[in-house]
Amino acid sequence: MLEIKNLHKRFGDKEVLKGVDLIVPERGVYGFVGVNGAGKTTTMKIVLGLLKADEGEVKVNGIPIAYGNTETNKMIGYLPDVPEYYGYMNCMEYLKFSGEICGMDATDCKRRSEELLEMVGLADEKHKIRGFSRGMKQRLGIAQALLHRPKLLICDEPTSALDPVGRKDILDVITTTAENQDTTVIFSTHILSDVEHICTEMALLNNGKICYSGSIKELKEMHRQQGYIIELENETIENPNGTETEMRQEVQKLLEKGIRFKKAELMEPSLEKVFMEVVGR
Amino acid sequence: MQDLEIIAEYLPLIIPFMLMEMALLAYTIWHIVTHRNYKRGNRVMWMIIAIAGMQFIGPILYFVLGKEED
Amino acid sequence: MKKMMAFIKKEWMELKRGGKLVVSFIVFMLFAVLDAGIAKLTPVLFDLMADELADQGLNIIQTDVTAAQCWDQFNGNLLVLFIVFVIMFAGILVNEYQKGTLVLIVTKGMPRKGIYFAKLIMIVAVWTVNYAMMTALTWFYGDYYWDNSIMHHMFGAIMGIWLFGVMLCCLIMFFSTIVKGMSGVLLCIGGFAFTCSIIGFVPGVDKYLPTTLSDMMTVMRGGADISIPAIIICIVICVASTIGGNILIEKKVTL
Predict the structure, then answer these.
(1) What pLDDT digit, counting tens, does each position of A28-45 carry?
(2) Do B56 and C22 touch (CB under 8 A)?
(3) Which secondary structure element, helix H or strand E, spans residue C185, and what is its range?
């Protein structure tokens, strides 16, 4: 769906992207993870044609993109972290305007707008956008991004400015989008729990390069840690190198001795830990 | 009779002037009523300023100091 | 073209709902009425003051008010009008950068040139309609109270002022692609006017300056012809700034 090859970009003397290679397969939600300043937004802006790459190639659905060329934008929907609208319009007016910019047929645009507003839960909102909360703006953001039925939806940290409730709403909407709308979603974020929730595959961007891409499961598998924890009433036994068999034996011993314990747990690698490890911090 | 003649002479100037005042006042009131938030102050305050403010001054004060930016 | 029309429609809605359309119309109309009103009231004011001044030993020789006084007012107040107009519309493009409202529109395939021209067309249209109304009103008063036929080069003079206004619109758009905020645009326009007035100190250079077009008093009174070089330079500035602005907006990194 999206193919990025050897992408370079520098701002002044700061090299932000040092050869990014990435292939995003069709369908599903693809996580794009990196710390703040890793170059996520820069990469996305190049894909959107808002920035010019110094070097490298980007293809969307097999068609190469060029700066300023808006042809490929027909296939892409974009949802920024804090989308800004014209406050004096209401949802339908904004979507109508967006549809005209995309070159959509007026009746089709109207039908599609109603359908999308229904999906994001803004169907009955008749107020001007001026008074919207961030969460509402983000939901309208999804509606406007999907208006022209894009093949690719790029979400740039869509949840980072939201409260927990708003975050869950947006994640749910994104998941349903990927399931029902025949759209590939790229989901950029630095919040790892979001990625774990909704993505099957992901790429890790660090220091201007992709340091991992593939399924989340495999990534965790690769960095599977040995070790277990057993919590007793008032102490914990921790064995960072112990295997599962060792834990079983330990538990057996405790049971034989009649010592009560609260829980015994094999260390499951959290994405956070894996992330830290890969990033090297 | 002379007074009337003088007024009649200035009528072409007075009428548009008053029309503008009324239009601006009506527009300002409409704007105040259709907006919930203002840069500063509240609805009652701006209504009083717009209506009581001498001629053009009240409405202009509202648009300069009170109108919320979109 | 279709996209630009959609954007023009959006600009129209913005000016309408933001109150700029109504307010600018009323301001222009107010200027026209005040210009004629002040000219008309001049003898009355003189009469009122004459007695007082006569007591102090000053004698005022009353001159008849003609259409010339009315157009003098018209010309004299143009500077203030231009300042009001520029302040009102200086933010038309930069406000969108600052809020980031263009990002979604551009990523939907709106060409940047289209945005530039839609906005330029919109402010030129607002200027043209308001200015036409204001001139027509002044013309009406000139004929109603006095007689416009004593004036000279009226059509040319009025068109010259219009052209100067169009140039201001072009400059607002051009400077908007360089600076970040509305104050920057105001500063640039101010700087432009200041530079013109500095150059104006050189004797004989007046007829080349576009600012000559903003004051047609001497021309209307028959004291001079309209300066053709100033018109040509004004048009050149319009075209050059529009071309330059289009190149710069394509290169602009932060929308």
Answers:
(1) 888 888 877 788 888 888
(2) no
(3) helix C182-199
Give the pLDDT band of residue C51 (cuts 50, 70, 90): confident
DSSP letter for A51, please: S
End-to-end CA distance of chain C: 21
pLDDT for A7 beyond 70: yes
From B37, B68, B70, residue closest to A86, measured CB to CB? B70
Q: Which residues contact A214 (CB under 8 A, 6 or more apart)?
A: A201, A202
Distance CA A12, CA C150 (A): 64
Identify whether the C-beta of residue C224 lies closer than 8 Å to the C-beta of residue C218. yes
Q: Which two tokens stand for residue A143?
A: 């509606």
Q: Which of C187, C227, C224, C191 is nearest to C207 (CA)?
A: C227
Q: Minimal CA–CA distance to B60: which of B16, B20, B33, B28? A: B28
State the alpha helices, DSSP H only, in chain A.
40-47, 91-102, 106-120, 134-146, 164-180, 192-198, 216-222, 244-257, 271-279
Q: List the single residue in A with minimal CA-CA distance to C101.
A: A84
3-state secondary structure C116-166: HHHHHHHHHHHHHHHHHHHHHHHHHHHHHHCCHHHCCCHHHHHHHHHHHHH
Say what the pTM is. 0.86
Total Cβ atoms within 10 A of residue C240: 12
Q: Which chains lie within 8 Å of chain A at 3 or more CB pairs, if any?
A: B, C
The 10 Å CB-count burial string (b at 16+, else e) for A115-153 is ebbebbebeebeebbbebeebbbbbbbbbbbbbbebbbb
Name the token pair of C40.
């008309």
**CB-based contacts of C154, cutoff 8 Å, min separation 6:** C148, C220
Nearest one of C30, C138, C80, C36 to B21, comparing CA atoms: C30
What angle do the packed helices C112-145 and C154-176 form, to 10 degrees?
150
Suggest the residue from C11, C107, C115 to mutate for an interface test with chain A (most A CBs closer than 10 A).
C107
Task: Look at C10 and A86 and tell me if their CB atoms are within 8 Å.
Answer: yes
Tokens linked to B50: 């717009």
Q: Tens digit of pLDDT for each residue in C228-237?
A: 899 999 999 9
Closest to A226 in 3D by CA, of A241, A246, A245: A241
